Protein backbone atom coordinates (compact mmCIF):
# COMPACT_ATOMS: atom_id res chain seq x y z
CA UNK A 1 0.00 0.00 0.00
CA UNK A 2 1.35 3.42 -0.91
CA UNK A 3 2.04 5.58 2.16
CA UNK A 4 2.03 9.31 2.69
CA UNK A 5 3.38 11.52 5.46
CA UNK A 6 1.80 14.25 7.54
CA UNK A 7 3.80 16.49 9.86
CA UNK A 8 2.39 18.21 12.95
CA UNK A 9 3.94 20.16 15.81
CA UNK A 10 3.27 18.71 19.24
CA UNK A 11 4.27 19.74 22.72
CA UNK A 12 7.04 17.82 24.40
CA UNK A 13 5.80 17.71 28.00
CA UNK A 14 8.30 18.58 30.70
CA UNK A 15 8.24 19.67 34.24
CA UNK A 16 10.90 22.31 34.08
CA UNK A 17 9.55 25.82 33.82
CA UNK A 18 12.40 26.87 31.55
CA UNK A 19 11.33 24.17 29.10
CA UNK A 20 7.59 24.21 29.74
CA UNK A 21 7.41 28.00 29.51
CA UNK A 22 9.12 28.01 26.13
CA UNK A 23 7.23 24.93 24.91
CA UNK A 24 9.90 22.93 23.19
CA UNK A 25 8.10 21.71 20.10
CA UNK A 26 8.79 18.28 18.66
CA UNK A 27 8.02 17.55 15.04
CA UNK A 28 6.44 14.16 14.74
CA UNK A 29 6.15 12.67 11.30
CA UNK A 30 3.11 10.44 11.01
CA UNK A 31 3.08 7.95 8.20
CA UNK A 32 -0.43 7.28 6.95
CA UNK A 33 -2.08 5.47 4.10
CA UNK A 34 -3.62 7.39 1.22
CA UNK A 35 -7.06 6.18 2.24
CA UNK A 36 -6.64 7.33 5.81
CA UNK A 37 -5.26 10.70 4.73
CA UNK A 38 -8.17 11.23 2.37
CA UNK A 39 -10.72 10.35 5.05
CA UNK A 40 -9.06 12.63 7.59
CA UNK A 41 -8.81 15.55 5.20
CA UNK A 42 -12.44 15.19 4.25
CA UNK A 43 -13.59 15.21 7.88
CA UNK A 44 -11.50 18.28 8.66
CA UNK A 45 -12.76 20.06 5.55
CA UNK A 46 -16.29 19.21 6.63
CA UNK A 47 -15.61 20.71 10.05
CA UNK A 48 -14.28 23.93 8.52
CA UNK A 49 -17.35 24.29 6.31
CA UNK A 50 -19.64 23.69 9.30
CA UNK A 51 -17.78 26.25 11.39
CA UNK A 52 -17.97 28.84 8.62
CA UNK A 53 -21.73 28.34 8.57
CA UNK A 54 -21.84 28.66 12.35
CA UNK A 55 -19.95 31.97 12.26
CA UNK A 56 -22.37 33.29 9.64
CA UNK A 57 -25.32 32.85 12.01
CA UNK A 58 -26.64 35.72 14.08
CA UNK A 59 -25.54 35.19 17.69
CA UNK A 60 -29.06 35.72 18.97
CA UNK A 61 -29.99 32.41 17.38
CA UNK A 62 -28.09 30.71 20.22
CA UNK A 63 -30.75 31.77 22.71
CA UNK A 64 -33.66 31.17 20.35
CA UNK A 65 -33.30 27.62 19.09
CA UNK A 66 -31.03 24.59 18.95
CA UNK A 67 -28.06 25.27 16.68
CA UNK A 68 -27.36 22.19 14.59
CA UNK A 69 -23.92 23.36 13.48
CA UNK A 70 -22.51 22.93 17.01
CA UNK A 71 -23.96 19.43 17.15
CA UNK A 72 -22.48 18.68 13.73
CA UNK A 73 -19.00 19.80 14.85
CA UNK A 74 -19.19 17.43 17.79
CA UNK A 75 -20.24 14.67 15.40
CA UNK A 76 -17.15 15.27 13.27
CA UNK A 77 -14.98 15.05 16.36
CA UNK A 78 -16.64 11.78 17.36
CA UNK A 79 -16.13 10.37 13.87
CA UNK A 80 -12.42 11.17 14.04
CA UNK A 81 -12.15 9.58 17.45
CA UNK A 82 -14.18 6.53 16.38
CA UNK A 83 -12.20 5.98 13.20
CA UNK A 84 -8.97 6.43 15.16
CA UNK A 85 -7.35 7.56 11.93
CA UNK A 86 -4.51 9.17 13.85
CA UNK A 87 -3.87 9.71 17.50
CA UNK A 88 -3.09 13.30 16.57
CA UNK A 89 -6.11 13.88 14.35
CA UNK A 90 -7.84 15.68 17.21
CA UNK A 91 -4.92 18.08 17.38
CA UNK A 92 -5.14 18.72 13.65
CA UNK A 93 -8.87 19.39 13.90
CA UNK A 94 -8.47 21.72 16.88
CA UNK A 95 -5.58 23.61 15.32
CA UNK A 96 -7.43 23.99 12.01
CA UNK A 97 -10.56 25.38 13.68
CA UNK A 98 -8.40 27.62 15.89
CA UNK A 99 -6.94 29.20 12.76
CA UNK A 100 -10.50 30.10 11.74
CA UNK A 101 -11.24 31.91 15.01
CA UNK A 102 -12.82 29.19 17.16
CA UNK A 103 -11.76 30.69 20.52
CA UNK A 104 -13.11 34.17 19.72
CA UNK A 105 -16.42 32.77 18.53
CA UNK A 106 -16.66 30.67 21.70
CA UNK A 107 -16.11 33.80 23.81
CA UNK A 108 -18.93 35.66 22.09
CA UNK A 109 -21.23 32.69 22.65
CA UNK A 110 -20.33 32.57 26.34
CA UNK A 111 -21.16 36.25 26.68
CA UNK A 112 -24.73 35.86 25.44
CA UNK A 113 -26.19 34.94 28.82
CA UNK A 114 -25.21 35.78 32.42
CA UNK A 115 -24.62 32.84 34.80
CA UNK A 116 -28.09 33.30 36.33
CA UNK A 117 -29.66 32.48 32.95
CA UNK A 118 -27.13 29.83 31.94
CA UNK A 119 -29.51 26.88 32.31
CA UNK A 120 -32.39 28.42 30.36
CA UNK A 121 -33.21 26.50 27.17
CA UNK A 122 -32.35 26.49 24.36
CA UNK A 123 -29.15 28.40 25.23
CA UNK A 124 -28.17 25.74 27.76
CA UNK A 125 -28.26 22.94 25.18
CA UNK A 126 -26.17 25.03 22.76
CA UNK A 127 -23.53 26.14 25.23
CA UNK A 128 -23.33 22.67 26.78
CA UNK A 129 -22.58 21.21 23.36
CA UNK A 130 -20.10 24.02 22.54
CA UNK A 131 -18.22 23.50 25.80
CA UNK A 132 -18.01 19.78 25.16
CA UNK A 133 -16.41 20.55 21.79
CA UNK A 134 -13.91 23.00 23.31
CA UNK A 135 -13.06 20.58 26.11
CA UNK A 136 -12.35 17.77 23.63
CA UNK A 137 -10.35 19.86 21.17
CA UNK A 138 -8.30 21.68 23.80
CA UNK A 139 -7.10 18.28 25.01
CA UNK A 140 -4.63 18.05 22.13
CA UNK A 141 -4.34 21.37 20.25
CA UNK A 142 -1.59 23.69 21.48
CA UNK A 143 -2.69 26.50 19.18
CA UNK A 144 -6.27 26.36 20.45
CA UNK A 145 -5.04 26.44 24.05
CA UNK A 146 -2.91 29.49 23.31
CA UNK A 147 -5.90 31.18 21.68
CA UNK A 148 -7.99 30.41 24.77
CA UNK A 149 -5.38 32.18 26.89
CA UNK A 150 -5.22 35.19 24.57
CA UNK A 151 -9.00 35.57 24.49
CA UNK A 152 -11.39 36.24 27.38
CA UNK A 153 -12.30 32.59 27.90
CA UNK A 154 -10.66 32.38 31.34
CA UNK A 155 -12.30 35.58 32.51
CA UNK A 156 -15.77 34.40 31.51
CA UNK A 157 -15.37 30.87 32.87
CA UNK A 158 -14.04 32.17 36.19
CA UNK A 159 -16.94 34.64 36.37
CA UNK A 160 -19.26 31.69 35.89
CA UNK A 161 -17.57 29.51 38.48
CA UNK A 162 -17.51 32.31 41.07
CA UNK A 163 -21.19 33.17 40.63
CA UNK A 164 -23.83 32.08 43.19
CA UNK A 165 -25.48 29.93 40.51
CA UNK A 166 -22.34 27.82 40.08
CA UNK A 167 -21.33 27.61 43.77
CA UNK A 168 -20.44 24.11 44.92
CA UNK A 169 -23.10 24.29 47.63
CA UNK A 170 -25.63 23.91 44.78
CA UNK A 171 -24.24 20.56 43.61
CA UNK A 172 -27.07 18.99 45.58
CA UNK A 173 -30.63 20.27 45.60
CA UNK A 174 -32.89 20.67 48.61
CA UNK A 175 -33.85 16.99 48.45
CA UNK A 176 -30.21 15.95 48.48
CA UNK A 177 -30.18 14.83 44.86
CA UNK A 178 -27.20 15.70 42.70
CA UNK A 179 -27.60 18.66 40.34
CA UNK A 180 -26.12 16.83 37.37
CA UNK A 181 -26.54 19.73 34.95
CA UNK A 182 -24.59 22.10 37.20
CA UNK A 183 -21.88 19.55 37.92
CA UNK A 184 -21.52 18.83 34.20
CA UNK A 185 -21.13 22.55 33.47
CA UNK A 186 -18.45 22.91 36.17
CA UNK A 187 -16.56 19.86 34.91
CA UNK A 188 -16.57 21.31 31.38
CA UNK A 189 -15.23 24.66 32.62
CA UNK A 190 -12.49 22.96 34.65
CA UNK A 191 -11.63 20.63 31.77
CA UNK A 192 -11.11 23.53 29.36
CA UNK A 193 -8.99 25.44 31.89
CA UNK A 194 -6.89 22.40 32.79
CA UNK A 195 -6.19 21.47 29.17
CA UNK A 196 -5.23 25.06 28.39
CA UNK A 197 -2.73 25.11 31.26
CA UNK A 198 -1.28 21.72 30.39
CA UNK A 199 -0.58 22.53 26.75
CA UNK A 200 0.12 26.28 27.14
CA UNK A 201 1.53 26.76 30.67
CA UNK A 202 2.06 30.51 30.24
CA UNK A 203 -1.72 30.69 30.54
CA UNK A 204 -1.21 30.41 34.31
CA UNK A 205 -0.48 34.14 34.38
CA UNK A 206 -3.75 34.82 32.55
CA UNK A 207 -5.62 32.74 35.13
CA UNK A 208 -4.00 34.62 37.98
CA UNK A 209 -4.92 37.97 36.40
CA UNK A 210 -8.64 37.16 36.57
CA UNK A 211 -8.44 35.98 40.20
CA UNK A 212 -8.81 32.42 39.03
CA UNK A 213 -6.74 30.93 41.86
CA UNK A 214 -9.21 32.03 44.53
CA UNK A 215 -12.18 30.68 42.56
CA UNK A 216 -10.54 27.33 41.81
CA UNK A 217 -9.41 27.00 45.43
CA UNK A 218 -13.02 27.40 46.56
CA UNK A 219 -13.97 24.39 44.43
CA UNK A 220 -11.53 22.18 46.36
CA UNK A 221 -14.01 22.42 49.26
CA UNK A 222 -16.59 20.32 47.44
CA UNK A 223 -17.23 16.75 48.55
CA UNK A 224 -17.37 15.58 44.94
CA UNK A 225 -13.90 14.16 44.51
CA UNK A 226 -13.50 14.39 40.73
CA UNK A 227 -14.34 18.10 40.70
CA UNK A 228 -11.98 18.57 43.63
CA UNK A 229 -9.28 16.61 41.80
CA UNK A 230 -9.57 18.73 38.64
CA UNK A 231 -9.35 21.85 40.79
CA UNK A 232 -6.21 20.51 42.50
CA UNK A 233 -4.60 19.76 39.13
CA UNK A 234 -5.32 23.31 37.96
CA UNK A 235 -3.81 24.79 41.12
CA UNK A 236 -0.70 22.66 40.65
CA UNK A 237 -0.14 24.37 37.29
CA UNK A 238 -1.23 27.89 38.13
CA UNK A 239 -0.69 28.71 41.82
CA UNK A 240 2.21 30.77 43.11
CA UNK A 241 4.99 28.38 44.24
CA UNK A 242 5.22 29.96 47.71
CA UNK A 243 1.52 29.57 48.51
CA UNK A 244 1.50 26.36 50.56
CA UNK A 245 -2.13 26.82 51.55
CA UNK A 246 -3.06 26.52 47.88
CA UNK A 247 -0.63 23.84 46.73
CA UNK A 248 -0.77 21.42 49.65
CA UNK A 249 -3.55 18.86 49.67
CA UNK A 250 -4.64 16.03 51.93
CA UNK A 251 -3.60 12.39 51.87
CA UNK A 252 -7.25 11.51 51.23
CA UNK A 253 -7.12 13.49 47.97
CA UNK A 254 -3.85 11.84 46.98
CA UNK A 255 -5.33 8.43 47.79
CA UNK A 256 -8.32 9.15 45.57
CA UNK A 257 -6.14 10.20 42.63
CA UNK A 258 -3.90 7.13 42.95
CA UNK A 259 -6.44 4.47 43.94
CA UNK A 260 -9.55 5.57 42.05
CA UNK A 261 -8.12 7.31 38.98
CA UNK A 262 -4.51 6.26 38.26
CA UNK A 263 -4.62 2.55 39.12
CA UNK A 264 -7.85 1.93 37.12
CA UNK A 265 -6.32 3.76 34.13
CA UNK A 266 -3.17 1.63 34.40
CA UNK A 267 -5.28 -1.53 34.38
CA UNK A 268 -6.66 -0.71 30.92
CA UNK A 269 -4.76 -1.90 27.85
CA UNK A 270 -4.93 1.65 26.50
CA UNK A 271 -3.79 3.13 29.83
CA UNK A 272 -6.84 5.42 29.70
CA UNK A 273 -9.38 5.19 32.50
CA UNK A 274 -12.93 4.17 31.58
CA UNK A 275 -14.72 6.23 34.21
CA UNK A 276 -12.72 9.45 34.28
CA UNK A 277 -10.98 9.30 30.86
CA UNK A 278 -7.58 10.41 32.16
CA UNK A 279 -4.56 8.72 30.60
CA UNK A 280 -1.72 7.38 32.75
CA UNK A 281 0.66 9.75 30.97
CA UNK A 282 -1.54 12.73 31.80
CA UNK A 283 -1.99 11.70 35.44
CA UNK A 284 1.76 11.24 35.94
CA UNK A 285 2.27 14.77 34.64
CA UNK A 286 -0.37 16.18 37.02
CA UNK A 287 1.10 14.32 40.00
CA UNK A 288 4.53 15.62 39.06
CA UNK A 289 3.23 19.18 39.09
CA UNK A 290 1.60 18.59 42.48
CA UNK A 291 4.87 17.13 43.78
CA UNK A 292 6.54 20.54 43.46
CA UNK A 293 5.16 20.86 46.99
CA UNK A 294 7.19 18.52 49.21
CA UNK A 295 4.21 17.79 51.46
CA UNK A 296 2.37 16.39 48.44
CA UNK A 297 5.50 14.51 47.43
CA UNK A 298 5.69 12.80 50.81
CA UNK A 299 1.97 12.00 50.71
CA UNK A 300 2.32 10.33 47.30
CA UNK A 301 5.08 8.03 48.49
CA UNK A 302 3.13 7.27 51.66
CA UNK A 303 0.17 6.42 49.42
CA UNK A 304 2.31 3.77 47.71
CA UNK A 305 3.01 5.47 44.40
CA UNK A 306 6.28 3.54 43.93
CA UNK A 307 4.72 0.24 42.69
CA UNK A 308 2.82 2.22 40.06
CA UNK A 309 6.00 3.97 38.89
CA UNK A 310 7.77 0.60 38.75
CA UNK A 311 4.98 -0.86 36.63
CA UNK A 312 5.22 2.00 34.12
CA UNK A 313 9.03 1.84 34.01
CA UNK A 314 8.80 -1.89 33.36
CA UNK A 315 6.18 -1.74 30.63
CA UNK A 316 5.40 1.79 29.37
CA UNK A 317 2.79 2.13 26.66
CA UNK A 318 4.72 4.97 24.99
CA UNK A 319 8.00 6.86 25.22
CA UNK A 320 6.16 9.89 26.57
CA UNK A 321 4.56 7.84 29.35
CA UNK A 322 8.02 6.55 30.29
CA UNK A 323 9.32 10.12 30.29
CA UNK A 324 6.55 11.27 32.64
CA UNK A 325 7.16 8.33 34.99
CA UNK A 326 10.89 9.04 35.16
CA UNK A 327 10.27 12.69 35.74
CA UNK A 328 7.86 11.98 38.59
CA UNK A 329 10.46 9.63 40.08
CA UNK A 330 13.09 12.37 39.89
CA UNK A 331 10.85 14.97 41.47
CA UNK A 332 9.76 12.62 44.26
CA UNK A 333 13.40 11.78 45.03
CA UNK A 334 14.22 15.07 46.75
CA UNK A 335 12.72 14.66 50.26
CA UNK A 336 15.05 12.54 52.47
CA UNK A 337 12.17 10.32 53.59
CA UNK A 338 11.37 9.46 49.98
CA UNK A 339 15.02 8.74 49.21
CA UNK A 340 15.01 6.06 51.91
CA UNK A 341 11.91 4.39 50.48
CA UNK A 342 13.20 4.44 46.92
CA UNK A 343 16.74 3.34 47.81
CA UNK A 344 15.33 0.27 49.60
CA UNK A 345 13.78 -1.01 46.38
CA UNK A 346 16.02 -3.48 44.61
CA UNK A 347 13.55 -3.57 41.72
CA UNK A 348 13.78 0.20 41.25
CA UNK A 349 17.57 -0.02 41.18
CA UNK A 350 17.45 -2.84 38.61
CA UNK A 351 15.00 -0.99 36.36
CA UNK A 352 17.01 2.23 36.51
CA UNK A 353 20.18 0.33 35.70
CA UNK A 354 18.50 -1.41 32.76
CA UNK A 355 17.15 1.89 31.44
CA UNK A 356 20.61 3.45 31.76
CA UNK A 357 21.91 0.78 29.39
CA UNK A 358 19.39 1.70 26.69
CA UNK A 359 20.55 3.99 23.92
CA UNK A 360 17.13 4.92 22.56
CA UNK A 361 15.77 6.99 25.47
CA UNK A 362 14.39 10.42 24.66
CA UNK A 363 16.31 13.48 25.84
CA UNK A 364 13.69 14.11 28.50
CA UNK A 365 13.81 10.53 29.76
CA UNK A 366 17.61 10.57 29.87
CA UNK A 367 17.60 13.82 31.81
CA UNK A 368 15.09 12.56 34.36
CA UNK A 369 16.83 9.21 34.75
CA UNK A 370 20.20 10.89 35.30
CA UNK A 371 18.58 13.30 37.74
CA UNK A 372 17.11 10.42 39.74
CA UNK A 373 20.52 8.71 39.81
CA UNK A 374 22.07 11.93 41.09
CA UNK A 375 19.60 12.03 44.00
CA UNK A 376 19.55 8.30 44.80
CA UNK A 377 22.99 6.93 43.92
CA UNK A 378 24.57 7.24 47.37
CA UNK A 379 21.41 6.01 49.06
CA UNK A 380 21.31 2.91 46.86
CA UNK A 381 24.88 2.15 47.87
CA UNK A 382 24.01 2.56 51.56
CA UNK A 383 20.75 0.59 51.52
CA UNK A 384 21.59 -2.14 48.98
CA UNK A 385 25.29 -2.85 49.64
CA UNK A 386 24.99 -6.45 48.47
CA UNK A 387 23.41 -5.45 45.17
CA UNK A 388 24.94 -2.14 44.16
CA UNK A 389 28.46 -1.96 42.89
CA UNK A 390 29.44 1.70 43.20
CA UNK A 391 31.48 1.50 40.02
CA UNK A 392 28.40 0.55 38.00
CA UNK A 393 26.29 3.53 39.04
CA UNK A 394 27.41 6.21 36.65
CA UNK A 395 25.45 8.97 34.99
CA UNK A 396 27.69 9.06 31.94
CA UNK A 397 31.30 9.13 30.83
CA UNK A 398 33.58 11.68 32.38
CA UNK A 399 33.80 15.09 30.79
CA UNK A 400 36.62 17.57 30.58
CA UNK A 401 35.32 20.58 32.50
CA UNK A 402 38.17 23.04 32.74
CA UNK A 403 39.83 24.85 35.61
CA UNK A 404 38.12 26.10 38.76
CA UNK A 405 35.40 28.64 38.15
CA UNK A 406 32.24 30.28 39.41
CA UNK A 407 29.20 28.38 38.15
CA UNK A 408 25.94 30.13 37.22
CA UNK A 409 22.82 28.01 37.77
CA UNK A 410 19.82 29.46 35.95
CA UNK A 411 16.60 28.50 34.22
CA UNK A 412 15.81 29.07 30.57
CA UNK A 413 13.17 31.67 31.40
CA UNK A 414 15.88 34.09 32.62
CA UNK A 415 18.59 33.17 30.13
CA UNK A 416 19.20 36.67 28.73
CA UNK A 417 19.75 38.19 32.16
CA UNK A 418 21.91 35.24 33.25
CA UNK A 419 24.15 35.76 30.21
CA UNK A 420 24.39 39.45 31.01
CA UNK A 421 25.54 38.57 34.53
CA UNK A 422 28.10 36.18 33.06
CA UNK A 423 29.49 38.84 30.74
CA UNK A 424 29.73 41.39 33.56
CA UNK A 425 31.53 38.98 35.89
CA UNK A 426 33.95 37.88 33.18
CA UNK A 427 34.68 41.55 32.53
CA UNK A 428 35.75 41.69 36.19
CA UNK A 429 38.12 38.71 35.72
CA UNK A 430 35.85 36.15 37.37
CA UNK A 431 36.07 32.80 35.49
CA UNK A 432 32.56 31.54 34.74
CA UNK A 433 31.04 28.18 33.80
CA UNK A 434 27.50 28.35 32.45
CA UNK A 435 25.42 25.88 30.48
CA UNK A 436 25.00 27.96 27.35
CA UNK A 437 22.50 25.64 25.70
CA UNK A 438 20.53 24.73 28.86
CA UNK A 439 20.98 21.07 27.92
CA UNK A 440 21.27 19.62 31.42
CA UNK A 441 19.26 16.61 30.34
CA UNK A 442 22.26 15.27 28.43
CA UNK A 443 25.03 16.59 30.65
CA UNK A 444 24.08 16.11 34.28
CA UNK A 445 27.52 14.58 34.77
CA UNK A 446 29.10 17.76 33.43
CA UNK A 447 26.83 19.74 35.72
CA UNK A 448 27.98 17.71 38.71
CA UNK A 449 31.61 18.15 37.72
CA UNK A 450 31.05 21.86 37.11
CA UNK A 451 29.71 22.18 40.65
CA UNK A 452 32.59 20.15 42.09
CA UNK A 453 35.20 22.33 40.36
CA UNK A 454 33.53 25.59 41.31
CA UNK A 455 34.63 27.92 44.09
CA UNK A 456 31.13 29.45 44.14
CA UNK A 457 27.72 28.78 42.62
CA UNK A 458 25.41 31.64 41.68
CA UNK A 459 21.72 30.76 41.92
CA UNK A 460 19.50 32.83 39.60
CA UNK A 461 16.34 33.05 41.71
CA UNK A 462 12.93 33.18 40.05
CA UNK A 463 9.60 31.40 40.18
CA UNK A 464 10.69 29.30 37.20
CA UNK A 465 13.92 28.36 38.98
CA UNK A 466 12.07 27.22 42.09
CA UNK A 467 9.67 25.09 40.01
CA UNK A 468 12.44 23.47 37.96
CA UNK A 469 13.51 19.95 38.89
CA UNK A 470 16.83 20.37 37.09
CA UNK A 471 17.61 23.62 38.87
CA UNK A 472 16.75 22.04 42.20
CA UNK A 473 19.20 19.21 41.49
CA UNK A 474 21.94 21.71 40.65
CA UNK A 475 21.33 23.86 43.71
CA UNK A 476 21.02 20.93 46.12
CA UNK A 477 24.19 19.33 44.74
CA UNK A 478 26.06 22.59 45.27
CA UNK A 479 24.76 22.65 48.85
CA UNK A 480 25.83 19.04 49.46
CA UNK A 481 29.28 19.89 48.07
CA UNK A 482 29.47 22.78 50.59
CA UNK A 483 30.05 25.35 47.86
CA UNK A 484 29.76 29.09 48.44
CA UNK A 485 26.22 29.88 47.31
CA UNK A 486 25.44 33.35 45.99
CA UNK A 487 21.73 34.05 45.35
CA UNK A 488 20.84 36.73 42.84
CA UNK A 489 17.25 37.89 42.27
CA UNK A 490 16.16 37.69 38.64
CA UNK A 491 12.60 39.05 38.87
CA UNK A 492 10.47 41.37 40.94
CA UNK A 493 7.84 40.22 43.44
CA UNK A 494 9.36 36.80 44.00
CA UNK A 495 10.14 35.45 47.45
CA UNK A 496 11.90 32.05 47.60
CA UNK A 497 9.98 29.44 49.57
CA UNK A 498 9.85 25.67 50.00
CA UNK A 499 13.21 23.99 49.25
CA UNK A 500 14.70 27.16 47.72
CA UNK A 501 13.71 29.31 50.68
CA UNK A 502 15.36 26.82 53.03
CA UNK A 503 18.49 26.62 50.91
CA UNK A 504 19.18 30.34 50.62
CA UNK A 505 17.84 31.11 54.10
CA UNK A 506 18.61 34.65 55.18
CA UNK A 507 21.34 35.17 52.59
CA UNK A 508 21.63 38.59 51.01
CA UNK A 509 20.09 38.73 47.53
CA UNK A 510 21.67 40.79 44.79
CA UNK A 511 18.94 42.44 42.70
CA UNK A 512 20.26 42.20 39.15
CA UNK A 513 16.79 42.50 37.59
CA UNK A 514 16.72 46.22 38.41
CA UNK A 515 18.61 48.16 35.76
CA UNK A 516 19.40 50.89 38.29
CA UNK A 517 21.07 48.34 40.60
CA UNK A 518 22.71 46.00 38.10
CA UNK A 519 26.22 47.49 38.01
CA UNK A 520 26.31 48.00 41.78
CA UNK A 521 25.14 44.42 42.33
CA UNK A 522 27.89 43.05 40.07
CA UNK A 523 30.48 45.06 42.00
CA UNK A 524 29.15 43.67 45.30
CA UNK A 525 29.21 40.11 43.96
CA UNK A 526 32.81 40.46 42.80
CA UNK A 527 33.78 41.95 46.16
CA UNK A 528 32.03 39.15 48.01
CA UNK A 529 33.71 36.45 45.90
CA UNK A 530 37.11 38.06 46.42
CA UNK A 531 36.55 38.22 50.18
CA UNK A 532 35.20 34.70 50.62
CA UNK A 533 37.46 32.95 48.09
CA UNK A 534 40.78 34.83 48.11
CA UNK A 535 42.45 32.19 45.94
CA UNK A 536 40.15 32.80 42.97
CA UNK A 537 42.13 32.47 39.74
CA UNK A 538 42.10 35.13 37.07
CA UNK A 539 40.01 34.47 34.03
CA UNK A 540 41.53 32.57 31.15
CA UNK A 541 40.24 31.97 27.67
CA UNK A 542 39.83 28.28 28.48
CA UNK A 543 37.41 28.77 31.36
CA UNK A 544 34.62 30.76 29.84
CA UNK A 545 31.13 29.88 28.69
CA UNK A 546 32.43 27.98 25.66
CA UNK A 547 33.39 25.11 27.97
CA UNK A 548 29.98 23.57 27.63
CA UNK A 549 30.09 23.44 23.87
CA UNK A 550 33.57 21.88 24.00
CA UNK A 551 32.47 18.98 26.18
CA UNK A 552 28.85 18.34 25.36
CA UNK A 553 29.58 15.31 23.20
CA UNK A 554 30.61 13.22 26.18
CA UNK A 555 27.17 12.16 27.38
CA UNK A 556 24.71 12.49 24.48
CA UNK A 557 23.98 10.70 21.31
CA UNK A 558 23.78 14.20 19.85
CA UNK A 559 26.41 16.84 20.38
CA UNK A 560 25.55 20.26 21.77
CA UNK A 561 25.91 21.71 18.30
CA UNK A 562 23.59 19.10 16.80
CA UNK A 563 20.92 19.57 19.46
CA UNK A 564 21.28 23.35 19.35
CA UNK A 565 20.89 23.27 15.58
CA UNK A 566 17.86 21.00 15.94
CA UNK A 567 16.22 23.30 18.49
CA UNK A 568 16.78 26.41 16.37
CA UNK A 569 15.74 24.78 13.10
CA UNK A 570 12.51 26.26 11.71
CA UNK A 571 9.62 23.82 11.60
Indicate the low-confidence ranges by residue numbers: 1-31, 390-398, 438-442, 540-571
The chain-level structural class is alpha/beta
Total helices: the number is 29
Q: Can you give the helix content as a percent range?
A: 55-70%
Say how many strands there are: 7
Q: What best-fitting shape do the alpha-carbon axes yield? A: globular
Q: What average pLDDT do the residues reach?
A: 83
- Main pleated-sheet profile: 5 strands, parallel
Distance between the termini: 28 Å
Round the Cα radius of gyration to an integer and report it. 25 Å
Question: What portion of the residues fall into strands of 2 or more residues?
Answer: 5-15%
- Trace the largest sheet across and list its strands: 4-3-5-6-7
Key words describing this protein structure:
two-stranded antiparallel sheet, 29 helices, single chain, globular, 5-stranded parallel β-sheet
Description:
The strands form 2 sheets. Strands 4-3-5-6-7 form a 5-stranded parallel sheet, sandwiched between helices. A two-stranded antiparallel sheet has the order 1-2. The chain has 571 residues and is of the alpha/beta class. Helices cover 57% and strands 7% of the residues. β3, α22 and β4 form a beta-alpha-beta unit.
Amino acid sequence: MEMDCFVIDTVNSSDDDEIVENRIISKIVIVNSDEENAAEKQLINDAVEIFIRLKALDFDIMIQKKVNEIVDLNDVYLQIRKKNILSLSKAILGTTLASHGLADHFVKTLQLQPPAKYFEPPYYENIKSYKRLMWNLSDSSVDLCKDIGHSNVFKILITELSSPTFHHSNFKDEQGDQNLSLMSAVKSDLGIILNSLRLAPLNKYKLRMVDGIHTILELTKTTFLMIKTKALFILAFAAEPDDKSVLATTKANIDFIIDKVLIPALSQSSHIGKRYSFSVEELLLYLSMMAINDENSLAMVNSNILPIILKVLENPISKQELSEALHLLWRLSFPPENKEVFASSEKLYSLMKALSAQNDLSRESSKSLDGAWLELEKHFQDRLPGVVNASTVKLATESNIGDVHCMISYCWHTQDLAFRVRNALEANDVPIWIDVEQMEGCVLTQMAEAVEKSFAVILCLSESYQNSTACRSEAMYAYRCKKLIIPIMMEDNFQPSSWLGILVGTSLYYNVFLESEFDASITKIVTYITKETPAVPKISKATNSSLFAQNSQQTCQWSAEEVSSWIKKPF
